[in-house]
Specification:
The chain has 3 domains: about 120 residues, 2-Layer Sandwich (GMP Synthetase, Chain A, domain 3), CATH 3.30.300; about 90 residues, GMP Synthetase, Chain A, domain 3; about 130 residues, GMP Synthetase, Chain A, domain 3. The longest helix is centred in the middle third of the chain and has 23 residues. The protein has 9 helices and 13 strands. It is of the alpha+beta class and about 375 residues long. Strand 8, helix 5 and strand 9 form a beta-alpha-beta unit.
């Protein structure tokens, strides 16, 4: 794990119109739809997008509709995702023109499977992390910044939909100077890739974007106390559409696959993330409940001790509770493991206990996926 007090820090954000995020949003729409019908529904789906084609595979068990009606519902969810992301009138593909292939097993949830929903159906090692930075919701500061910048740019673009498209990516790179209360941040580069219509030259793009970014960073510095976000940012640090014109974007410019943005979904590229993707899985699956509980504990420990905290949990198939529960705090001399009696009891990590404690059956998973699984302090596992 990289020393958070030295070196370059960087993190990525991709918009809701990026091909991978389109695929994630479709997968999460399916999860939310299934769980609304049956809180014990079993969902494991993957989604691929390219041009005007969308492919959905996997399994959905326990929904109230028959396979034919459920397939129609999934088809409508796919088209809704594209519309909500900004595709349609000005940017293709249009939702109504999509070719949706649903190769998904849709069936009843058997009594036997329902009885073992409280047990892990897979193996996984998951990691939770928290940094002593309340202003950034106890996340690595540049990871937090990347998310805020990207979402601000999406809001800015939504008011200019004729000129700028739904597909954008953000990559801030900053150097951390000093530590503790004397910490400051020095910009190395802000890379932005933003889809645009033909005819908008570089100068016009810079003239529109740079003042907005400068003002936004000024606000972020005041909000977060991250000294240097505004004062060290200049036009020479702004790198826009470096590969040339970005007129053909979204799924017409690249393919997308759900579950690819694991690092974005967790803690950024300097922190290990453990197991599989969060999206496309129902909230009884260990790939979902495990990382949420690990983050919750790491954040609590960080608040309690005022130090970086990391938590590792491990499950084998057939287990309700993890076989591995570890928590470490980072002291000046290095990482120190906490004793078992300093951690919650083992049943606190049970799958059903987590599901009920965090009220995961009513979470708006598509919204959480697009805004960030660990970005909002209002989410149940962030409290």
């Amino acid at each position: 794990m990289m020393n958070p007090e030295t070196g370059l820090h960087f993190a990525e954000y991709v918009s809701s119109g990026h091909p991978d995020r389109l695929a994630d949003a479709v997968a999460e729409k399916i999860v939310a739809w299934a769980v609304r019908q049956n809180q014990r529904a079993l969902v494991g789906v993957e989604v691929a997008v390219h041009d005007d084609e969308v492919f959905v595979d996997g399994r959905v068990a326990g929904v109230l509709l028959n396979a034919e009606c459920a397939t129609k519902e999934i088809d409508s969810l796919v088209r809704l995702v594209y519309k909500e992301a900004g595709y349609g009138e000005h940017w293709g593909p249009k939702p109504e023109d999509l070719q949706v292939c649903i190769s998904t097993c849709i069936e009843e949830l058997s009594e036997d499977e329902d009885d073992i929903r409280s047990l892990s159906d897979d193996q996984n090692i998951v990691l939770g992390f928290a940094e002593d930075s309340p202003e950034t919701n106890y996340l690595p500061p540049v990871h937090w910044l990347s998310n805020r910048l990207g979402r601000s740019l999406e809001a800015w673009r939504s008011r200019r939909v004729r000129d700028f498209g739904p597909d954008l990516k953000v990559l801030p790179i900053l150097r951390r100077i000093g530590n503790g209360s004397s910490t400051s941040w020095d910009w190395e580069r802000l890379t932005v890739s933003l889809q645009h219509r033909k005819g908008i030259d570089y100068e016009l793009q810079y003239r529109q974007l740079f003042p907005f970014l400068a003002d936004t960073l000024n606000g972020f510095e005041k909000q977060s106390g991250l000294t240097g976000l505004s004062s060290t940012f200049g036009i020479d640090k702004f790198y826009l559409n470096g590969a040339g014109d970005f007129c053909q974007g979204g799924p017409q410019g690249d393919n997308g696959l759900s579950g690819k943005k694991l690092v974005v979904d967790h803690y950024g590229p300097t922190i290990p993330i453990g197991g599989g993707a969060l999206c496309g899985k129902d909230p009884h699956k260990i790939d979902r409940v495990g990382p949420l509980r690990a983050r919750q504990l790491a954040k609590r420990l960080c608040k309690m001790h005022g130090e970086l905290a990391r938590v590792r949990l491990g499950w084998s198939p057939g287990e309700a509770e993890p076989f591995l529960v570890e928590a470490h705090l980072r002291h000046v001399a290095g990482w120190k493991e906490l004793a078992v009696n300093q951690l919650p009891p083992r049943d606190w990590f049970g799958i059903d206990v987590i599901y009920k404690d965090l009220d995961l059956g009513i979470v708006d998973w598509p919204k959480v996926a697009l805004s960030g699984y660990f970005q909002s302090p209002d989410l149940p596992w962030e409290r």
